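Q: My labmate handed me this sequence with no annotations at all. I'd like to see what the chain might look like in three dimensions before we decide whether it's worth expressing. Could you predict it?
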Amino acid sequence: MKISFSPPYIDDSVVEEVTESLRSGWITTGPKVKALEAEIARLSGAPQVLCVNSWTTGAIMTLRWLGIQPGDEVIIPAYTYCATALAVLWAGGKPVMVDSGEDLNISVEAIRRAITPRTKAIIPVDIAGWPCDYHAIMDLVQEPEVKAMFQPTSPVMEKLGRVIVINDSAHSIGSRYHNKFSGTETDIVIFSLHAVKNITTAEGGAICLNMPAPFDNEQLYAELRMKALNCQTKDAFTKSKAGGWRYDIVGMGMKANMADVNAAIGLAQIRQYDQLLARRKSIFERYHEAFSQQPWAIVPPSLSADRESSYHIYALRIKDITEDQRDEIIAEISKSEVAVNVHFIPLPMLTLFRDLGYDIKDYPQAYQNYAHEITLPCYPQLTDEQVAFVIKTVIEAYQTVIRKA
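A: Here is what I predict for the chain of 405 residues:
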């Protein structure tokens, strides 16, 4: 039985929405992007939402708006995808990597130990769609001694008066934190709408603005929207109107806007997200029921009194094995044509970051999380029969490898 890892959800409603966009004669940023922003704002509760062409460009633009300067530090987990660190580098800052906890997410105590007067931002990452401990992180940046240490290097930083917290919520659209959907738990939340995410626009991202007073989130939306269009004073839709050709460039912006033809995909999906999310949850529960009975399995966190996952990926971990044994288990699973993955290779193990001086020995929990992890398929199109086959295949692969040990 051949099972793909994470195909996009494309049904007739998606095809119809995209076709409507194509036939409208307007395929770049326009009404469908605005409609998608409104839907994400409704789901997340965020005061303002700006759609952009990727999580990465959204994060770079946000950090540039913050005013990151050379030498400014941004705390991130070592256990994440490379985009978290690359955004900091492209914005001109220095990524300060810290270790994870056993729940895969960033360690709050490790954040505390890493804060210096050069710290300007913290980017926690919701691994697999499981929310970080945001109350603890927000309390930390508000502590008098942490605020007293803060040294702003831009007008935006001076206005905020403390370290900013920007969620890397690439995995977690639709997750819940203290009975609210993700989107308002920190200053800025950025979702990914990449092809493999719960909601996709093929490529894309969404910046949820939740800045505290005296910031005006509506005004900030307008500012960032202009920055996403090369700081051009008129967007293409407005310029295309009769007599509307004249514009100005008022700053050094980026080309980061989302196109309507992309937004149409996400628009059709988000309108049925309740059903899609429920199906993901049911698959998670089937995996949980099966693997919780295996003494060698560590099931991923998904539901607690104050948090609920977006059920983006099923990050299964296996006790008491080596990295090589994990790889052997994946090879055995692949023989049955079940596609699995690993989330993530810790950043210090990648050539770029290793060459920059990061050492995986400094992040023992991140390494343990990685070395024991196998990501199983989890998407709405999976049938119950396919889920059962994945479970059977993983258990048999584990047994085959361990018998050889």
